[in-house]
Design a protein that fits this description.
Elements (H helix, E strand, L loop, with lengths): L15 H13 L2 H19 L8 H40 L1
Helix pairs in contact: 1-2, 1-3, 2-3
Length: 98
């Protein structure tokens, strides 16, 4: 067997830094980046587990994905709180008009 018979299959490079940046942007700028980092992070972690992607970026990918999840949860919470507050103020305004 020659040396070239023992080469390892190429794996995709990790995108941990990109996913981390998207997670941070999801928290600070727009939650859409949080959704992107969550989806990309989940897919990349699955590829790392399957040996298709460089596992060196696993920790950055996990942190970025978690930040994306937090950004999405905070956005959902903000929407729910807005609906509740507008509902309470709407009822209060209706009661004071009578």
């Amino acid at each position: 067997m020659s040396h070239s018979d023992h080469t390892m299959p190429a794996v995709m490079p990790h995108r941990g830094a990109l996913i981390l940046v998207f997670g941070i942007l999801g928290l600070l700028v727009c939650f859409i980046f949080g959704i992107i980092s969550w989806i990309m992070g989940k897919g990349d972690l699955d590829r790392m587990k399957a040996g298709q992607m460089d596992p060196e970026g696993e920790s950055l990918t996990k942190v970025g994905m978690i930040l994306g999840i937090v950004a999405c949860c905070l956005q959902i919470l903000a929407v729910v709180m807005s609906i509740l507050l507008f509902g309470v103020f709407g009822v209060a305004a209706g009661m004071s008009a009578n």
